[in-house]
Design a protein that fits this description.
With about 425 residues, the protein is an all-alpha fold. It is about 80% helix and about 0% strand. The protein folds into 2 domains: about 200 residues, Growth Hormone, Chain: A, CATH 1.20.1250; about 190 residues, Up-down Bundle (Growth Hormone, Chain: A). It is built from 15 helices and no strands.
């Protein structure tokens, strides 16, 4: 069974994206949520390192946020398909705002330990697992299919900008004020996001359908989602791309970049920050490009080509030994991430039956997030036995290029997708 295109009734022309009231509130919610989370993550990590002096324990915080996100993601997708996505997003944001307030009060009146931050990270991770499938499933109900690519590019640009500017803002706030003020900003931004979500209006018919389905077994619903994906070569190809990119690139890139700067480029922390900034900047440029072009044809071929070029840029990056070369290639690499991600998300939103959308989005997220710890472990293993980081990057990039060729030749459903 291939992915089914769901025809929506024809009506009046959809308003321009920035005149669409619902999309505007969703964008405001995304802007505030992204900035709030970026400020929270930076402040949390810097507090553990600077105030507590527990650099080695910082990994506990990251594990506490990432593992429950992966474990609960499929449940979050099933819940998103059965209940109001607006309400799930609202509840997630308002609860996270409450967690941030609790942390502020703890900082003011209690004795914060590393386990305090582990607990808060754990709660954030669980709530994320419910927020993102609902968010990905809500957008198609708010904009027309023709506007999905542009809408996704705007959402991606907002998210990427927040993770460039959010840490800078948090650093300035901490330097000029205090950690209490930084975490208070997180709480305020998440509260604003939750209010914006409440102002989004979707059809009552859809909500009633979710209530009728609420009596069905949750785990049966999850199994139906897995079976739906397994029967679609189109969806399996997209998930395979997510798996390979996160397994063979994310670990070597995130873990290996500091080693690459130190051992290959002979650089310092400033050079490392330049590379991180250029990677994020490239992703932002890619999002803008996709949004401006608003590509509606041959999107499957675009994704396959972008994956192949992504692997090629990563391979070429492993050969660089000058900072300017590395900066140019990592910016190009970042741009391909956006060119891959936005059409994939748009393709799923435009073609999957609405009642399956939350589960499909959650499976895609699990394929991405779930392999990141494995990628870290595999990269660490190869480094520990003496394989240098440039070789790991070279092999990872080559495997991604090979995958794009295999998908192009073996999966015509994706190659020919518009």
């Amino acid at each position: 069974m291939e992915a089914v295109v769901e025809q929506k009734p024809q009506g009046e022309l959809a308003p321009a994206i920035w005149k669409n009231r619902n999309f505007l509130f969703l964008w405001i919610a995304g802007l505030c949520s992204s900035f709030g989370l970026a400020i929270f993550m930076f402040s949390e990590a810097w507090y553990v390192v600077e105030v507590m002096g527990l650099e080695a324990s910082l990994g506990l915080v990251f594990i506490a946020s990432s593992v429950p996100r992966v474990l609960f993601m499929m449940i979050g997708g099933a819940v998103a398909d059965r209940f109001s996505k607006n309400f799930i997003m609202f509840l997630s944001d308002i609860l996270r705002a409450g967690v941030a307030v609790a942390l502020v009060l703890w900082l003011l009146f209690g004795d914060v330990t590393i386990w305090s931050f582990v607990l808060f990270a754990l709660i954030f991770g669980i709530l994320d697992a419910f927020f993102w499938p609902a968010s990905g499933g809500l957008l198609p109900a708010l904009v027309s299919k023709e506007q999905l690519t542009r809408a996704n590019s705007v959402i991606q640009m907002t998210s990427q900008s927040s993770f460039i500017l959010g840490p800078m803002l948090a650093g300035a706030v901490i330097a000029l004020g205090s950690y209490v003020f930084a975490f208070s900003m997180t709480a305020a931004l998440l509260a604003i996001a939750s209010i914006a979500i409440l102002l989004i209006r979707t059809s009552k018919k859809k909500a009633e359908g979710g209530e009728q389905e609420a009596a069905s077994d949750l785990f049966k619903s999850i199994k139906e989602g897995i079976a739906y994906v397994k029967e679609s070569s189109f969806l399996l190809a997209l998930i395979l791309f997510a798996v390979f990119i996160n397994l063979f690139m994310v670990g070597p890139l995130q873990m290996g970049l500091p080693l690459f700067v130190k051992n290959v480029l002979g650089g310092n922390s400033l050079d490392f920050s330049y590379l991180e900034g250029m990677l994020a900047g490239g992703m932002l440029v890619g999002s803008i490009l996709i949004g401006v072009l608003n590509i509606q044809k041959r999107r499957g071929l675009l994704v396959i080509a972008a994956v192949g070029i992504n692997g090629l840029f990563f391979t070429l990056f492993s050969f660089t030994n000058e900072l300017w070369q590395s900066l140019a290639l990592i910016a190009l690499l970042g741009s391909t991430f956006s060119i891959i991600n936005i059409p994939i998300i748009t393709a799923i939103q435009a073609t999957i039956k609405e009642e399956m959308l939350g589960r499909v989005m959650s499976l895609l997220s699990m394929a991405s997030l779930g392999l990141v710890p494995v990628s870290f472990a595999v990269t660490s293993l190869f480094l520990s036995v003496g394989v240098d980081i440039t070789t790991i990057m070279l092999v990872g990039g080559g495997l991604i290029v090979l995958l794009s060729v295999v998908i192009y030749t073996k999966v015509p459903g994706l190659r020919n997708f518009d």
